[in-house]
Amino acid sequence: MTNRLANFCAGPATMPTAVLQKAQAEMLDWHNLGVSVMEISHRSADYMELAQQAESNLRKLMNISDDYAVLFLQGGAALQFSAIPLNLMNGGVADYLETGTWSQKAYKEAKRYETLGLGKVNLVASGDASGFTDIPSMEQWQLSDNASYFHYCPNETIHGVQMFDVPKVNAPIVADMSSCILSAPIDVNQFGLIYAGAQKNIGPAGLTLVIVRKDLMEQASAWCPAVMNYKNQFENDSMLNTPSTYAWYLSGLVFEWLIEQGGVEAIAKINQAKANALYQAIDNSDFYHNQVNPQYRSIMNVPFTLANSELDKVFLEKSKEAGLLNLKGHRVVGGMRASIYNAVTLAQVEQLVSFMKEFERQYG
Ligand SMILES: *Cc1c(COP(=O)(O)O)cnc(C)c1O
């Protein structure tokens, strides 16, 4: 096999090798058409079939009912920070919970739409005081009555904070699942809208998934651009304009791969084992440290610091030499971060753990 290394990049993140091999094998000639999949019309029968297959596989994996539309859009999760208020605020109050960089960005973006008269944006609570290492307890939340929606980010990719329980609120729940979608089973029916940029746990950058309850698609603002309008996209099979066809294709291959792995339940067990192995290695040492309240430690993104930050550079050099890539932490948090999405194997995490032990023995 080729020299594919263990890649702990937070995003765009590693892809399953089997998926890349399949894409490679059919790169030049897809479905005996004599051209690649990226060179055909998105409206051709062959491509439409691919699109439908990807959607039905995702529906199977996440158990998504017909009450929900599944949209394959562009613009990343960040464009959804605008699309959500434009589609859902509807003159009411939107509640935002702030638990890290991403939910903070979503809140700030929504806030801008107050000036358009779209509605009000209310900050329910913020984990800022804890440096986003903890989730504010629900007793402190300032929820609005009859909010248009409640927005939160179940897994904060940068701070490594994850909320495993869906908040008990009355408003439709909107969740940024960019870095945790398909990592563990969820009940989609508890949500009004789920969105995710593909480049963490699904496929390449350029594709954004939106799973939205159909009755929530009826209230878009007149300000909402056509390509950002959920109902408009739904009625046009997410093809109001040219979609990100190759990213859509690769994501479809990842869905097939996930089904072959035994689905989300099976991958969740492996994810838990990976996270346990890594947190155990951190907790069993005085050299490595993770700051997050253990109750909320992410199973996907594991930030950690070394006892002596002057060793950060050496750690990164030596880990790279050992074939363990992209462990540098986000600049907001510093230190290291291992993103251990679905496509990272348990063996690769064990390789990282052994490296960490050896590094501590040498430098600790
Ligand atoms: C990466 C990320 C984003 C930003 O995604 P883009 O596709 O770059 O816009 C938003 N939210 C979360 C939780 C992320 O991990």
UniProtKB/TrEMBL annotation:
Record text on cofactor binding: Binds 1 pyridoxal phosphate per subunit.
Q: Does the keyword Cytoplasm apply?
A: yes
Please name the SUPFAM superfamilies in this protein's record.
PLP-dependent transferases
Q: Which PROSITE patterns match?
A: AA_TRANSFER_CLASS_5 (PS00595)
Q: For the Aminotransferase class V domain, which residue ranges apply? A: 7-352
EC code(s) of this entry: 2.6.1.52
Catalysis performed (reactions): 4-(phosphooxy)-L-threonine + 2-oxoglutarate = (R)-3-hydroxy-2-oxo-4-phosphooxybutanoate + L-glutamate; O-phospho-L-serine + 2-oxoglutarate = 3-phosphooxypyruvate + L-glutamate
Cross-referenced Gene3D superfamilies, in alphabetical order? Aspartate Aminotransferase, domain 1, Type I PLP-dependent aspartate aminotransferase-like (Major domain)
List where in the cell it is found. Answer: Cytoplasm
Q: Where does pyridoxal 5'-phosphate bind?
A: 102, 157, 176, 199, 241-242
Provide the alphabetized UniProt keywords. Answer: Amino-acid biosynthesis, Aminotransferase, Cytoplasm, Pyridoxal phosphate, Pyridoxine biosynthesis, Serine biosynthesis, Transferase
Q: Which cofactors, by name?
A: pyridoxal 5'-phosphate
Subcellular location, principal: cytoplasm
Subunit architecture: Homodimer.
Q: What exactly does this protein do?
A: Catalyzes the reversible conversion of 3-phosphohydroxypyruvate to phosphoserine and of 3-hydroxy-2-oxo-4-phosphonooxybutanoate to phosphohydroxythreonine.
Q: What is the protein name for this chain?
A: Phosphoserine aminotransferase
